Amino acid sequence: MNYQPVIGLEVHCQLKTKSKLFCACSTEFGLPANSNICPVCTGQPGVLPVLNKKAVEYAIRTAIALNCKTAQQSIFARKNYFYPDLPKNYQISQYEMPLAEDGYLEILNAENAEISRIPRKKRIGIQRVHLEEDAGKLLHAVGSQELDYSLVDFNRTGIPLLEIVSAPEINSPEEAYFYLQTLKMNLQYLDVSDCDMEKGSLRCDGNVSVVAEPSNLELERKVAGSGKKLGVKTEIKNMNSFKALKEALSYEINRQIEVLESGGKIVQETRLWDADRGITQSMRSKEYAHDYRYFPEPDLVPLILSIDHDLREENFVAEIKKNLPELPAQRKERFIKEYQLSEYDAGVVTAEKKLADYYEDTVKKLQVTGFKLQIVAKTIANWITTELLGKLNAEKKAIIDSPIKPEDLAGLIKLIQEGTISGKIAKTVFEEMYNTGKKAEKIVQEKGLVQLTDEKEIAKIIEGVLRENETIVREYKAGKERALGALVGAVMKKTQGRANPQLVNKILEEKLRSC
Amino acid sequence: MGIYELSAKELGEKIKKKEISSEEVVNAFYKRIEEIEKKIHSFITLTKEEAIKQAKIVDEKIRKNEPVGELAGIPIAIKDNLCIQRIRTTCGSKILENYFAPYDATVIEKLRKADAIFVGKTNMDEFAMGSSTETSYFGLTRNPQNLEYIPGGSSGGSASAVAAKEIPFALGSDTGGSIRQPASCCGIVGLKPTYGRVSRYGLVAFASSLDQIGPLARDVYDCALLLKIISGYDEKDSTSINLPVPDFSQGLQGLKGLQGIKVGLPKEYFIEGIEPEVEKAVKEAAKVLAELGAEIIEISLPHTEYAVATYYLIAPSEASANLARYDGVRYGYRSTFNVQRSTLEEVYERTRGEGFGVEVKRRIMLGTYALSAGYYDAYYLKALKVRTLIKKDFDEAFKKVEVILTPTAPTPAFKLGEKLDDPLKMYLSDIFTISANLAGIPGISIPCGYTGGGIHLPIGLQILGKPFTEETVLKVAYAYEQTMNGKRITDNDK
User: Would you say residue A461 lies in a domain?
Assistant: First the structure.
């Protein structure tokens, strides 16, 4: 039987506010253990939380970008469970009346794209977006030394976390991967989170089940429309990278199918992904599931987000909506229209906000020097997608770490466009720029790489080449047109590639005709 | 007359006029404490050294004619669930026996600014859970009016210290009557402000939606004086309300009669179970108010009978979460039982099992149960709905009257040990005070007589007001007190 996987993802991302969600402590990462703490975030007796307005703003900004309905009034709740990384032994989270509900994220289902070459858009529902506080970190070892006790670091305690819960509408590990990528891209464009999975500022849990697929696709669509029955699900935790996400989901889907095929039943439980062994393992079953005893947080008042009927009040949500930054999908569309980039190039260049910024900075720098947009836009995209990203990716560097800044790349392209250097030389100059950080102009001057455009001089060199390669000339005249390439090559070799290729071609052809 | 006999108002005036130094005053109160503390046991911690140091600083400021705060040099006692930096805050519990707060509560900051002198931390029911101060890990407190009787609770130490003149005034906290009921038991004045009037930052939480800090004093004026200092919006407490704070004590001066004031007597408060002497004293008080020009109107608060049940779902539910932090991980008591071989669960269970007393454990279990999956709707949620009804009762009543007059407690103080083994009986001590916490309204308890038959225990009169009308509540109380002065049987200061 065929099975369709049904996946819902629960994503947590740390918001990059300056201070924590309920106290004034800094959110800075990587400080010495327990140096970023106060009575509030260590849960001293008598302290009270005070909500960080910026965190709410970031959360609402995200919710709007995810097409959610924001609540007019939202409340916080206490989620009760004992654990040493949780100072109050309850987490201030949201349960009823979250900040926002019922949105969607559009992803490009690139799995299909590979087959049809046309990416298929798919909307993944977003069930809810809510704010909560992060917990601390437990250390069970110092370096490689295992401890027979545990240490706790409360620096992370109280950092604002945004929880984004998708609907169970993801149908493959690949789709889950693209969903998380797209979500990450949006969060970065919104400038609300660093989304660094390695640092734990982006985390993801998954709910996985499989359903036997009806053979008739039409039937399936009908059923989907009327609320298809889901199989028993398992919750997968500890997927700490994009790779882990794909592998863990694939493993779990196959495991569930195997269980069902062999006549077994799926047990509702929480399972941990073990990346070293490549398997998911049962952590706790439903009987041992926590009863979190949620109840409204009495130390915080209800959050009034928008008052539609009272014009005197500032409308918090409307204000955020008005100032919403451009999102990746919008930017890609704009790049296609404004710069006439291909869908592919626009996709690559806008995949990261900083990269798209880099691209547009370079465009602007060149426009200032008087170049027409249509001429340079595509050239810049080519240099970035092939040369620059090739280099950076090989060294696992981000665009902001590029030794070549937008104005430098603009300088290089300017030299090419003005005909000062040839495209071939430009690649050598680019290498040099990347390795030394020097400007293109300086490298060209220092190494005497200025393009040879003096026709008389080129003619003189060509005459020499023709004399030295009489055999090839004869072959050419005998009709072997490819022999021309060898002659061009010889000229370029003599000029160390500096000769203007168009002029070389033109003069060479003239000379060959006349001799 | 000894220094300790003077009211806070009188002490403040004398200190400012340099008739007496703060150091003399503080020493006089410590001498008084040394004399009678053995009998009464109002305090868990005394901070004499620090207090004398602070008094000297204030004296120096006054000597140099530098500006000083409104309570300059006046000693004050603080209930031991309010955090004072570097001073032990036990909440009357073994689990916080050696907890030293790393910060000042907002009310403490305000008192520091007013140049008040902190004399010590007063005894209380463990985590403010109780009505007799008998559940304190540090031993019981006796009622200065009669040593065989309880001082009330949970702010029993603050009430007894004020009544025994160990201190001119004190701070307490009131979740279901914990200021008003001990004030009633000890024959002093105690006020629970409107929820949100005083910042709770630094008050060790029992039930967050009900807790309020308030003053206990020997008379209404001192009560008003202290209320003004501690009131006001605090950005550290999101539930505090940003409203101007009236000069409560100033408002009392030159008060003439109660003409035009409508006073409600709720019929549901004069029912079976109330002691006849209490009912009589309160009805007499109503007559006094009527003589002062007030109009007495019978009103109804129909949901009164559900108040105790509602309270004993909401308060323990919140407490079950509020008290979860006492786990022995970061501070406070940690069980030493076989630590090396214990699991995490065992450390929690042992620590909390050994660190909390019986009543606290009972309420944590109650609350945990009420919030559990499958029970939440039937208990906690239902209680919230009834709470709204109780609030509506008051809203309706306050359309007809400015204040409501009730007994503070159905009985005067009871004997030590009398109700300790019967929690339900103990819970009924707060039957008349709980509603004010559920509705968030202000209430004061003032003495309105003594029981006869040779036992001679004070009876408390409760005056409840609309939210943020402490001024009105204080005025009615003050007018009554002024009228009764002289007529009142003097308390037996033994």
Answer: yes
Do A370 and A465 lie in one domain? The reply is no
Give the list of residues 6+ apart from residue B44 with CB closer than 8 angstroms, or none.
B80, B88, B90, B92, B120, B121, B122, B123, B124, B136, B138, B157
What's the CA gap between B201 and A71, in Å, rounded? 29
Look at A66-80, A83-97, A173-187, A496-510 and tell me which has the smallest mean pLDDT: A496-510
**Does residue A442 share a domain with residue A461?**
no
**Residue pLDDT, tens place only, B348-383:** 999 999 999 999 999 999 999 999 999 999 999 999
B82 interfaces chain A, CB cutoff of 8 Å: yes
Length in residues, chain B = 494
**8 Å CB contact of A46 and B89:** yes
What is the pTM for the complete model shown? 0.90
Task: Report the alpha-carbon distance of residue B164 to residue B158 in Å, rounded.
Answer: 10
Considering only residues A501 and B236, tell me which one the structure prediction assigns the higher pLDDT: B236
pLDDT at B489: 42
SS3 content of chain A, % helix, strand, coil (to 5): 40, 20, 35
Phi, psi angle pair for B452, to nearest 5°: -95, -155
* Interatomic CA distance for residues B42 and B158, integer angstroms: 7
Same domain, A253 and A135: yes
H/E stretch holding B76: strand B75-79
Pair (A259, A345) in one structural domain: no
pLDDT at A224: 53
Quickly state the pLDDT bin for A366 (edges 50, 70, 90): confident
Beta bridge partners of A133: A160
Q: Are residues A289 and A356 in the same domain?
A: no
* Domains contained in chain A, number: 3
| Partner-chain contact A299 B208, CB within 8 Å | yes
User: Which pLDDT score is estimated for A312?
Assistant: 45
User: What is the rounded CA–CA span in Å between residue A63 and residue A72?
Assistant: 13
Contact A39 B103 (CB under 8 A): yes
Range of the domain at A351: 328-447
Is the CB of residue A76 less than 8 Å away from at least one CB of chain B? no
pLDDT of residue B269: 94
Residue A346 reports pLDDT greater than 50: yes
Nearest chain A CA: its distance from B266 CA (Å): 29
- C-alpha A260/C-alpha A61 separation (Å) is 42
Q: Which phi and psi angles does A386 have, rounded to 5°? A: -90, -60
Tell me: pLDDT of A313 over 50. no
Task: Give the closest-approach CA distance of B403 to chain A in angstroms.
Answer: 27
Q: End-to-end CA distance of chain B, in Å? A: 15
Pairing outcome for strands A303-304 and B75-79: unpaired
**How far does chain A reach from its first CA to its final CA, in angstroms?**
77
Distance from CA of B227 to the nearest CA of A (A): 20
> Are A429 and A470 members of one domain?
no
Q: Do B317 and A295 touch (CB under 8 A)?
A: yes
**Of A22, A37, A44, A297, which to mutate for an interface test with B (greatest number of B Cβ within 10 Å)?**
A44
One domain, residues A188 and A333: no
pLDDT at residue A309, as a whole number: 52
In the prediction, which pLDDT does A375 show? 78
Residue A247 and residue A390 in one domain: no
